[in-house]
Design brief:
Helices cover 56% and strands 4% of the residues. By secondary structure, it is mainly α. A four-stranded antiparallel sheet has the order 1-2-4-3.
């Protein structure tokens, strides 16, 4: 558990408090940055491509750019809408990726270090070194065997890698940098800290509601189910006892895509500890028949942290904009329609 001082440093809270004081921004620089951030997030909500925006944020990995990444985490925590969070991070990575094209060697390594990604550049061998644990942590969402630890060359607990791979890892580090901060910021504290910008945040929150994970699901297409859901169903049909979160994820997903209660119940018929009465109650609760709340399945990050992700080398899972099982489902259905 991190203490409040550590959290304050990681999120930039102390620095932002200074700017947000009545006399803390005499030249209006921070107020202008807030407007730029609002404009960027608003554009993401409206589907405007970030490359079309001529605003001076998320242009590069610099010390001031790190401040922007911390600031956007506060915005996303206040708005608190996962589909928006995923899209904003995707657009930021896309925007910074353009600047990364011109970097190599020690300069590229220094950019990674700004993002708190420990890297070294071996001038003699012209190779980059990344700690094993950092490489594996950031490569879980990247598809392809070249990003698996099994296929890497190691030197003293460091992964030796080339420029192209490091740039891809840096993109993942950008997303992890933002999400790590969103996760540790308390929403109440965020609302208190940015209380002078309530109108701005309310406007963005309303716009964010236009981004819907579910949309119109249409007819159920089992071929479009993500690997995790197919794995859960397979386990159950093979008599394997699925953990509680796996059951919750599966039921809430099937409910969202339109499967009827009796069909979901039928899947559980082969569960080793199957109890029709208890299972029906749990299914109805998740579907909202009892609680009145129609639950959504956990996001991909939550499933990964609970060892319930089975993405393998699935290219759709690896897409930066896919952060939720329902986003995967809609993407696969969209591809099927085009085909």
């Amino acid at each position: 558990m991190m203490n409040s001082e550590r959290i304050s440093i990681l999120t930039g809270e102390e620095e932002f408090r200074k700017y947000l004081k009545e006399d803390g921004d005499p030249f209006g620089i921070f107020a202008e940055k807030m407007e730029h951030m609002s404009e960027f997030i608003s554009a993401v909500c409206e589907g405007i491509h970030s490359k079309e925006l001529e605003i001076p944020i998320f242009k590069d990995i610099t010390s001031s750019g790190i401040m922007d990444l911390k600031l956007v985490a506060w915005f996303l925590r206040i708005i608190d809408h996962e589909p928006l969070t995923g899209r904003v991070i995707f657009r930021i990575k896309e925007r910074i990726d353009s600047a990364m094209e011109k970097y190599s060697g020690e300069l590229l390594s220094s950019k990674a270090n700004i993002l708190e990604l420990t890297t070294e550049y071996d001038v003699t061998d012209k190779i980059y070194l990344i700690p094993v644990e950092e490489f594996t942590r950031l490569c879980t969402r990247i598809t392809g065997s070249r990003y698996r630890l099994t296929f890497q060359t190691l030197r003293d607990s460091m992964v030796l890698t080339e420029e192209e791979i490091l740039k891809r890892v840096i993109k993942e580090a950008i997303g992890a940098f933002i999400r790590d901060r969103v996760d540790i910021i308390e929403k109440e504290k965020a609302l208190e800290l940015f209380s002078g910008y309530e109108s701005m945040m309310e406007t963005l929150s309303k716009k964010a509601l236009n981004i819907k994970i579910e949309a119109e699901m249409g007819p159920i297409d089992t071929e479009a189910f993500p690997p995790c859901i197919r794995h859960y169903i397979s386990d159950i049909q093979n008599g394997i006892n699925l953990p509680h979160m796996g059951r919750f994820a599966m039921v809430s997903f099937l409910n969202k895509v339109g499967m009827k209660q009796e069909d979901i119940m039928a899947i559980f018929g082969t569960v080793p500890d199957f109890n029709a009465r208890i299972t029906e109650y749990q299914v109805r609760h998740i579907m909202g028949s009892i609680s009145g709340i129609k639950y959504s399945p956990p996001k991909c990050e939550t499933l990964r942290s609970n060892h319930l992700c089975y993405m393998g080398d699935d290219p759709v899972c690896a897409m930066e904009k896919v952060n939720h099982p329902l986003q995967y489902y809609l993407e696969k259905k969209k591809r099927a329609r085009k085909a």
